[in-house]
Design brief:
Helix content: 40-55%
Number of domains: 5
InterPro entries: PcfJ (IPR025586)
Structural class: alpha+beta
Radius of gyration: 32 Å
Distance between the termini: 64 Å
Keywords: Coiled coil
Order of helices and strands: HHHHHHHHHHHHHHHHHHHEEHHEEEH
Strand order of the largest sheet: 1-2-3-4-5
Pfam families: PcfJ (PF14284)
Largest sheet: 5 strands, antiparallel
Number of helices: 22
Strand content: 5-15%
Length: 517
């Protein structure tokens, strides 16, 4: 009893001691004093920094949590009986049932309902949508759906999430006569086969758009009106018809590329060549830039018009060369198109560039061999070889027709601008690292399959600062910054591809918080 009284007295004394302290003062006290004895610490403790969480990830987690609360509530006697009835396929008489719901049929209002549902999903998430869907998401309906799709939790979640667009009640479904429950609930007309795979992907704003497109196809809604609401920009409305020709294993982004390439007259074999080059895997419905999308269409039309003459290897080289020229011209504020150029002229330009590149590689090999000799030489011999090397470089530069490799035959270094930076955003760790040697530029160019290895001259002259953007998986982008204007000249992914929106937002944050500071 005495110990108990002493403990209570001690707690009361501590409470009175800290009664007048604010939360901030209390935190500072604990950082500077031992937690158990109250004695001052020799060195203050360092509080842990809070990790910044991406709002989109938080929203996705809230949606999933809310949906699971509906799908898997705490068991009650009523829910257990409902599950048992569904398992036995015993449906209560309709005259006394409260679970049978009169579902809305496809109508002219389908698009308006889809727009309204999507807008509410974007703003408030499923937290505000699911209560309004209580008439469909009854215990007995959920029991039927969970039994039919027991092998796939994500499919269960998506089917229930879009319950406002059910055509029929799950309670009336008969597996033997009605077939697949997904088609029974949603489908009245045919939809492109690749869209069915979207039901098996965890829901986010992008996948939900394509699920609603599936609903439009399956129930006769206007895809043109829905696409306009999504702010998708289409070159041709024939896209919606061409999507039926897409292979079933394509993602929505690749399916749109395939449908447009096929609409322009392309062949499947040439489309495979196109997709092997990552710079041509772009979002045609929400392009990062109109210039990039116009270039995609221009290049596709040119290669399709020459598909009878171009071998697969030549086609691959043309695609790489066109993208290389496009990015190099863009640095100078110019545009580049293949249209209007003859096949012979394009192939000659590629051959000339490859020959120049081969000469450059041979020159580097000779330089490496000569470096070994120079390291072994002494006095006058070393000086003679150095002067001979300088004269040879000067003569070679005078003979060159292109300026790609003027500075690249020497290994140069230059000072860093102090803009290296790392951050955590979009659920990943990102890191900006400046490349300050010729070898680092060549390594970046080889890893990313583009020509940044030839930018030594720009870096030595302080016209450019080159950074490698990487995430936890490796290299994501190469970024060129104007050191004077502190602006991004260009940012390219592998094979000079356009960057994803996440990478673009990271670069914008870096420029704002580090480069312009």
């Amino acid at each position: 009893m005495e110990v108990s009284m002493n403990t209570a007295t001690a707690k009361q004394a501590i409470k009175q001691c800290f009664q007048s302290l604010t939360d901030e003062q209390l935190q500072q006290y604990h950082l500077n004093h031992d937690y158990f004895t109250g004695r001052p610490l020799g060195k203050p403790q360092v509080p842990h920094n809070r990790v910044e969480v991406d709002p989109s990830i938080q929203k996705k987690q809230r949606n999933l949590s809310r949906l699971n609360e509906v799908l898997y509530p705490t068991p009650t006697l009523g829910s257990v009986m409902g599950d048992a009835l569904a398992a036995l396929k015993l449906v209560p008489e309709k005259s006394i049932s409260t679970d049978t719901v009169l579902l809305k049929k496809p109508s002219e209002g389908l698009v308006d309902r889809a727009k309204s549902w999507f807008d509410q999903y974007q703003v408030d998430g499923l937290e505000s949508l699911l209560p309004a869907q209580a008439d469909q998401l009854t215990e007995m309906n959920l029991a039927v759906i969970k039994r039919a799709f027991s092998h796939n939790t994500v499919l269960i979640q998506n089917v229930c999430m879009l319950s406002p667009f059910w055509l029929r009640s799950p309670l009336e479904w008969d597996e033997q006569s009605d077939g697949d429950l997904l088609e029974y609930l949603f489908v009245q007309y045919d939809a492109p086969a690749f869209l069915k795979s979207c039901w098996y992907d965890a829901a986010d704003e992008e996948s939900v758009r394509w699920l609603l497109c599936f609903v439009m196809y399956a129930q006769g809604g206007s895809l043109k009106a829905l696409a306009k609401h999504f702010n998708w920009t289409l070159v041709s409305n024939k896209l919606w018809h061409e999507l039926f020709s897409c292979p079933t294993d394509l993602s929505p982004q690749h399916a749109v590329l395939y449908a447009e390439f096929y609409r322009l007259g392309g062949w499947t074999e040439d489309f495979s060549c196109l997709m092997e080059n990552e710079s041509y895997v772009i979002d045609l419905l929400e392009p990062i830039s109109e210039e990039s999308r116009d270039f995609w269409y221009d290049t596709c039309r040119w290669t399709i018009s020459h598909q009878l003459e171009l071998a697969a290897e030549e086609n691959t080289k043309v695609l790489w060369w066109a993208r290389h020229q496009f990015t190099e011209h863009a640095r100078n504020g110019e545009s580049y198109r293949l249209q209007g150029r003859s096949q012979a002229k394009v192939l000659d330009s590629i051959a000339e560039y490859e020959l120049e590149k081969h000469r450059f590689e041979q020159a580097r090999a000779r330089m490496a061999a000569r470096a070994v000799q120079v390291s072994m030489a002494r006095g006058a011999e070393r000086e003679r070889l150095r002067l001979e090397n300088i004269e040879e470089q000067a003569a070679r530069r005078e003979r060159q027709h292109f300026n790609y490799f003027d500075y690249e035959e020497m290994d140069a270094t230059w000072a860093s601008h102090g803009w290296n930076w790392s951050t955590f955003i979009h659920g990943k760790n990102w890191r900006f690292t400046e490349l300050t040697t010729s070898q680092q530029l060549r390594d970046e160019g080889n890893a990313m399959s583009h020509c940044v290895g030839s930018y030594t001259g720009s870096c030595v002259n302080q016209d450019s600062a080159i950074f490698s953007l990487r995430d936890e998986a490796g290299r994501v982008a190469t970024v060129e910054v104007d050191p004077v204007l502190k602006e991004v000249n260009q940012a390219q992914g592998k094979c000079n591809s356009d960057l994803r929106k996440a990478a673009q937002s990271v670069i914008e944050k870096w420029i704002k918080e580090v480069v312009l500071r």
